[in-house]
């Protein structure tokens, strides 16, 4: 009999999450039946979506939602032999018994020298998000100028690098000087600290006086309205995330973007990466190739210990991470 450690959402978040919203609980797991496997978590992801999705997809008392890279430690399903690794959406838990239906095997040609944790980052959901936002939503073209915010994070750091691969000028914003230095290392043409910039409008104008063709929006809120005013006519905006409002207790209001959108004839589209699930295998192969060719640097912010899941999650929400935030069990 295996005991799983699990992190439960005891109470729906009100404002910024607190330690008391989580509880560590033990759960006895049954032996795997025919067709089932027993998984042991190796790396767990902490992602911004967990904050808004917890409200709509979870009840108090549920195990926190989330994705992990897990090792198969017992198997009664020949598709998932003992010792193989999978990506599983079984939440914040050290062990799980599941049938294979929702498991994604790690691609068989995964190279030895590429960490498996990247299956939660550059060669996983954040990488897919960056590619689809750029290619399917923005239709970014060589020579164009792209703005991305939360640029030193999991998605943003990949967006900037992929835009450089495509021959674009890239401007990124992030919340510390160390993050700005990281963006320069990655090859961003311009990068600035939005927390210390005296005027967002001025810094955006200085970084690209001629304006922006594309905006990969991760942050939302008030800064968004300022950025929209710096778009070129017929600019395109991919609304990927809105992290600046996820912890609000009362919704933010205005300024409203409609007149700017009309005068500049902007096109704005929200998206979720899951829309292109049918393309995931091919896209993951392309991401892996860029990693192997050294075209994508994949920085990770690793927190050690399953016990530290809530701290890692809250740390990511407040900007502790450079690159992808993951927990190593
Ligand atoms: N649509 C989709 O399918 C999809 C998929 C994945 C992610 N997303 C979204 O993409 C965005 C980035 O996700 P990620 O996984 O790459 O997270 P991440 O950027 O690695 O981590 C979150 C970052 O957000 C920044 N942040 C937090 N509060 C902020 C605020 N008030 N204003 C500006 N920046 C703030 C922090 O960096 P700073 O130090 O720079 O503030 C923090 O490091 C999120 O909005 C997420 O919801 C969407």
TrEMBL record:
Catalyses which reaction?
20-hydroxy-leukotriene B4 + NADP(+) = 12-oxo-20-hydroxy-leukotriene B4 + NADPH + H(+); 4-hydroxynonanal + NADP(+) = (E)-4-hydroxynon-2-enal + NADPH + H(+); 13,14-dihydro-15-oxo-prostaglandin F1alpha + NADP(+) = 15-oxoprostaglandin F1alpha + NADPH + H(+); dodecanal + NADP(+) = (2E)-dodecenal + NADPH + H(+)
What is the uppermost EC class here?
oxidoreductase
Name the principal localization, coarsely classed.
cytoplasm
**InterPro entries per the record?**
ADH-like_C, ADH_N_2, ER, GroES-like_sf, MDR_fam, NAD(P)-bd_dom_sf, PTGR1
* Presence of the UniProt keyword DNA-binding in the record: no
Location of the protein in the cell: Cytoplasm
Which SMART domains does the protein's record reference? PKS_ER (SM00829)
Per the UniProt entry, what are the Gene Ontology biological process annotations, in alphabetical order?
prostaglandin metabolic process
Cite the Enoyl reductase (ER) domain residue spans from the record. 15-327
Query: Where in the sequence is the signal peptide annotated?
Result: none
What EC number(s) does its UniProt record assign?
A: 1.3.1.48, 1.3.1.74
Return the Pfam families for the record.
Answer: ADH_N_2, ADH_zinc_N
One cellular component term from this protein's GO annotations in UniProt:
cytoplasm
One function term, GO molecular function aspect: 15-oxoprostaglandin 13-reductase [NAD(P)+] activity
Keywords on this record?
A: Acetylation, Cytoplasm, Fatty acid metabolism, Hydroxylation, Lipid metabolism, NADP, Oxidoreductase, Phosphoprotein, Prostaglandin metabolism
Q: What's the subunit arrangement here?
A: Monomer or homodimer.
Q: Which family does it belong to?
A: Belongs to the NADP-dependent oxidoreductase L4BD family.
> In its UniProt entry, what is this protein called?
Prostaglandin reductase 1
Q: Which organism is it from?
A: Parambassis ranga
Q: Which gene carries the instructions for this protein?
A: ptgr1
